[in-house]
Amino acid sequence: MIHFLLLGALIFGVYDWMTADAPPQAGQIVITQDQIDNLRIGFTRVWRRDPTPSEADGLIQDFVREEVLAREATTLGLDRDDVVIRRRLRQKMEFITNDLAAPPEPTEAELEAFLAEHPDLFRIESRLTVRQVYLDPRQRRNSMQQDAVQLLAELNQPGSTADFRMLGDATMLNSELVDVRAAEVARQFGDDFARQVEPLQKGRWQGPVTSSYGDHLVFVAARTPGRMPALAEVRELVAREWVDARRRENNEKIYQELLKRYNVTIERGPSGTNENELAAQIK
Hints:
Layout lengths: L1 H17 L9 E4 L1 H15 L5 H23 L10 H16 L6 H10 L1 H4 L4 E9 L1 H4 L3 H13 L19 E6 H8 L1 H7 L7 E6 L4 E10 L6 H29 L3 E4 L8 H8 L1
Parallel strand pairs: 1-6
Antiparallel strand pairs: 2-3, 2-5, 4-5
């Protein structure tokens, strides 16, 4: 009898200990400072830096989204035959909402409007054939301007046979880019360089044009201007982007409706950001 009573007391004691931190009742979500700290630690381990305030708020909002969708998935019984972690439950819930959020086939008018509203997504970039002669500011120092003038005169001289590949200073940069997108010029030489090259006259050596590497004499051999395509040229891409955009909008509407079932409380320490601000963003 004594052993039985001791065992019973032990069982109830363990039960009380295990349920002391039981989750709040349905409809109540509480994000504690410890959970926020864990989110920050996880971010730091991945990115090797602390999150910015906006990134930290994004982590919390994502955690709330995960909690809402995980609970909804559990309510639907999606966890009964599955032993995977909460993110798997969220994933399954998002699969369902993706199906619910799937939009109908777009009309031609909707695609035309979407193309007009998002020109940056579909604009055909200009293409360039560019040659360059590199001038290293560390080697030329005070003679840079004079050297550039002399080289330009040599390169632009009528009937010149000067090989631009043999002129200038040694560099690992490409001396010529043939029929590439403007974005590729920017990728190799930087955005500032690409912006300066874009308006240059075709068929003549010009410069110097400055990049993060130094100065360059530049020859634009060919240029195909960028343009907005007709819908017929990019219909498949526009339709795909339209469907993705509508699905994201519908998913967000479904999530906002689910979120209304919960009272979200963000518990922060003394140094935390304004709770009401974040709560307003979540809502």
